[in-house]
Amino acid sequence: MLKEKIKSLAQQYSNEFIQVRHHLHANPELSYKEFETSKFIQSKLREFGISFDVKATTGVVAIIKGRNPESRVIALRADMDALPIQEENNVEYKSKNNGVMHACGHDVHTTILLGAAKILNELKTDWEGTLKLIFQPGEEKNPGGASLMIKDGVLENPKPQGIIALHVHPELQLGKLSFRKGRVMASADEIYITIKGKGGHAAAPHLTTDTILMASHLVVALQQIISRNKNPLSPSVLTISSFQGGHTTNVIPSEVKLMGTFRAMDEQWRYKAHELIKKISTELVHSMGGEIDLLIDVGYPTVDNDDALTDTAWKLADEFMGKENVLETEMRMGAEDFGYYTQIIPGCFYRLGVRNEDKGIIHGVHTPKFNIDETAIETGIVMMAWLGANVKV
User: For the chain, how many structural domains are there in total?
Assistant: First the structure.
């Protein structure tokens, strides 16, 4: 049976791909700078005898054809960029690149897709259709590597009928998977505000236009966009996460900079909120005598899991893992540029449990101590291979 063959090969190659993960983790690269990572992926695909092309500078797209290759086309996607975080884990494969870390698990995602690729290529007479393997740059940074890969034709020649991706989930126990139909992640936009005014001596505020005071009022006022304009049954978040202004105790600065993020589960509300942010910010600052520069950098759309594709994948996971190990995942206000793919073709974005309290593996993504129980790599490989070989849209 194909299931048993996948399990056997994944077990056989388990240590090999743990070492692959160690290499990737120790050599992280930031978004759109994944040059050595891309070369490593290419070398592995070449070693496995899998043909590939390079897209969007560092992206890699491979093709594996099974029996009756035109009967179906499914894409499997992994991201490969790291974050500007200084790693605090004391492990032998700790990041060698100062201030750069695989703190979101993209090293794991890439490892899993490489492992699935090796197995699916060796078993290509056991399944039907064509698989397109997408190793994507720049998931962590606008405009999102997915959008660049799409512009470079990753969803053409051949066009996939559906696309599947996973993400490590440090809140989900080792040995578990989770799926969700419909909307699963939020849109994400970046807010950049510069408030300008007449600076001066802090002892003579009447002779200045107090930018600190204006910015403080604005931070509070922006929260009312959510609390008094949005349907409370639809999740949304507006967070000002950076407030930069002034350098000493006795000077009111002539400029203050704010940065933040806006997230929504409703695309119509998303763009209405943009207008409210601009209106409230501009009118408040002008009313207090200041000037304002404001940029809303429109980012990733919502991630929407196709009901039919996700239902199929979920049932396949139940069959392979046992229903007790496949849960319903929660909606999250985090964002993923996988949403660009799901705007065009049916998608399924699911989660892989990597948590192990006994080993102290409890830290969340985007933190300096994020890590996984590496037993999850084998689970990830077998599931990605199983879905790749069986999913139909």
Answer: 2
The predicted structure's pLDDT at residue 286: 98
Residue with tokens 């830290």: 363
Instruction: Examine the fold and report which residue of 267, 297, 327 is the final residue of a domain before the chain moves on.
Output: 297
Residues 202, 346 within the same domain: no
Q: Are 257 and 293 in contact (CB under 8 A)?
A: no
Evaluate if residue 393 carries a pLDDT over 90: no
Q: What is the DSSP string of 154-220?
A: TT-SSPPSEEEEEEEEEEEETT-EEE--EEEE-EEEEEEEEEE---EETT-GGGS--HHHHHHHHHH
Q: Which CATH number belongs to the domain containing residue 273 in this structure?
A: 3.30.70.360
pTM of the model: 0.94
Catalytic residues: 300, 374
> Are the C-beta atoms of 184 and 339 separated by less than 8 Å?
no
Query: Is the same domain home to 339 and 278?
Result: no
As a whole number of angstroms, the distance between CA 344 and CA 334 comes to 21
Alpha-carbon gap, residue 62 to 76, rounded angstroms: 10
Mean pLDDT calculated for residue range 62-70: 97
Domain check: are 289 and 310 in the same one?
A: no
